[in-house]
Amino acid sequence: MQGLVDEVRAGQLVSSTQGRDTERYYLVLSKSDNSFVYVTDGEYRGVEKPKRKNLKHLKIWPVASENIGTKIAAQMKVTNADIRSELAAMMKKLQEEPLLKG
């Protein structure tokens, strides 16, 4: 399971596969212990109170926000508006590129 945590990085697009938030899209804020990450969508789960999710309950998409990843790495403030705008851009990109669907 450690391999999955190493595969995920800050700014990575993920979607929930289990729980009340099934099919909701998030961006990864940080890694937690073992097989958990903290995710946010900037709306229901803001950056001030991210959701802790088990990687077994997430689908990891092959796209990540370089802007968010860079801000987190530089320990700059990431706002909910930043998350929402990046998530919207990534969702548009997913819908336009048929290879990323599924």
UniProtKB/TrEMBL annotation:
SUPFAM superfamilies named in the record: Translation proteins SH3-like domain
Entry keyword annotation includes Ribosomal protein: yes
Superkingdom to which the source organism belongs: Bacteria
Keyword terms, alphabetized: Ribonucleoprotein, Ribosomal protein
CDD domains for this protein: KOW_RPL14
Organism: Desulforamulus reducens (strain ATCC BAA-1160 / DSM 100696 / MI-1)
InterPro entries noted in UniProt: Ribosomal_eL14_KOW, Translation_prot_SH3-like_sf
GO cellular component labels: ribonucleoprotein complex; ribosome
Protein's UniProt name: LSU ribosomal protein L14E
